[in-house]
UniProtKB/TrEMBL annotation:
Signal peptide interval: none
This protein's record includes keyword Cell wall biogenesis/degradation: no
Classification via InterPro entries: Pex16
Coiled-coil stretches: none
Biological process according to GO: peroxisome organization
Record key words, sorted: Peroxisome, Peroxisome biogenesis
Chain spans, region Disordered: 1-25
Primary localization: membrane
Family listed: Belongs to the peroxin-16 family.
Name this polypeptide is given: Peroxisomal membrane protein PEX16
Highest taxon listed in the record's lineage: Eukaryota
GO cellular component: peroxisomal membrane
Locations listed in the record: Peroxisome membrane
Species name: Verticillium longisporum
Length: 408
């Protein structure tokens, strides 16, 4: 063999073993599930704090709809992201509650929706799709108007209303012709925290601020409010009520008929006229959107009257008999309040409420008037900005500002 130049030998670098590659790839791929599990544990243990953060972020989106250029899209992006994230958090907290012993009876709405989401996979998927479309519909409309103009915007609006109507009709079919509830998924319930963990966290906080450790909570409880442990059996008896609070104490221990009913029987199956009323209620937003899309006159009363008439006809055809359950009556009461938002839509807003809003804005404090002025642009240019969910959150935010301004 020829001698190497300058006495240097060229050596091949050692080839890495396939097993080392596999172990490194496996360790990298195992990180996301670990992070996700840690995140789920954090959300489960800090449910109340997470709810406060979500509420604060939603309030922020109500303040900046038109403060800056293109701020409405940025604000709605944040709002939609928070809503979708809260939907994921609701799933985590519901899963955590299902693993705990039942300490109190859930509300009829949660019992009914939990039954269908846990027992029927199709219901859960369709309901999740419906909620996601509802949370992002205004953002889709804004993006469609930015890209395709007014014509493209109405195409997206009609498409989204058609998707929502299809989802609701599927839910009506899945539940065997039972009325729909709002929302179609279980509402969030707080996860009970461990008292020992709460005490430890309080002690750590006191140590950080230089205070004394928190004493045991039982030290500040009066003797008649403590549970009494029986010495022989070790079982505990609940505390006795106050002398003036016996009625409410006894009522809190009584079970109602809805508490012992099976979850599917919280809503009766409907047929005939009542079923037609439910279908009309589902199709009313789609019919109104189609009428608006075909109307060339922005101030025309025809689309508004058509949409309101369909909604009113659905309400008149509903079942008013003695078989109506409390959950169904509550749902129709929600729908009755939601009909009030028709005053902020179409020709009624253009011809009547627009002047009223302007007069109210001129009499409001400057910060509230500025927010109202920013929202007038959304109400006049976007269909989904007058949805009941969006307006409910907005009015709640305005109310908090009014209270703050009227304070000392």
């Amino acid at each position: 063999m020829p001698a190497p130049l300058n006495g240097l030998s060229k050596s091949n670098p050692p080839k890495p073993q396939p097993s080392s590659y596999r172990s490194s790839i496996g360790s990298v791929l195992s990180l996301p599930p670990k992070w996700l599990q840690k995140y789920e544990d954090f959300i489960t243990k800090n449910g109340s704090q997470v709810s406060q953060i979500e509420s604060g972020l939603r309030s922020l989106t109500y303040v900046i709809p038109g403060r800056f250029r293109d701020a409405e899209i940025a604000s709605e992006t944040v709002h939609s992201s928070v809503q979708l994230l809260s939907l994921y958090h609701d799933t985590l907290l519901t899963r955590a509650l299902s693993r705990l012993p039942i300490t109190k009876i859930p509300s009829p709405h949660n019992r009914y929706t939990q039954f269908w989401t846990q027992r029927n996979t199709m219901y859960r998927r369709v309901a999740m799709l419906l909620q996601m479309v509802t949370y992002t519909q205004l953002l889709w409309e804004m993006a469609a108007k930015r890209k395709g103009g007014n014509r493209g915007r109405w195409r997206v609006v009609v498409l989204l209303e058609a998707i929502k109507a299809l989802c609701r009709l599927l839910l009506l079919r899945i539940t065997r012709s039972r009325p729909l509830v709002t929302p179609v998924l279980p509402e969030r319930e707080p996860v009970p925290e461990d008292p020992e963990e709460q005490a430890a966290a309080a002690n750590e906080l006191q140590q950080l601020i230089g205070g004394d450790p928190v004493e045991d909570a039982d030290d500040g409880v009066k003797a008649h409010e403590k549970e009494w442990a029986m010495p022989r059996t070790g079982m505990s008896l609940p505390s006795l009520p106050r002398p003036g609070d016996i009625s409410s104490y006894l009522l809190g221990k009584v079970l109602t008929s809805d508490d012992i009913k099976p979850a599917p029987q919280l809503l009766n199956q409907i047929q005939g006229q009542a079923q037609a009323a439910e279908v009309l209620h589902i199709l009313a937003p789609l019919i109104y959107a189609l009428a608006l899309a075909r109307s060339k006159d922005r101030g025309s009363w025809t689309p508004w009257l058509v949409g309101l008439s369909v909604e009113y006809a659905a309400r008149q055809l509903r079942d008013r008999g003695f078989r109506t359950t409390p959950l169904e009556r509550d749902e129709w009461n929600k729908r009755a309040w939601a009909m009030g938002w028709w005053t902020m839509r179409g020709a009624f807003y253009e011809k009547v409420m627009k002047g009223v809003v302007g007069g109210v804005r001129s009499r409001m404090p400057s910060i509230v008037g500025g927010i109202l002025e920013d929202y007038e642009y959304l109400w006049e240019n976007y269909y989904f900005s007058t949805s009941a969910k969006r307006l409910t959150g907005f009015t709640g935010h305005i109310g908090s500002h009014v209270v703050a301004q009227s304070g000392p």
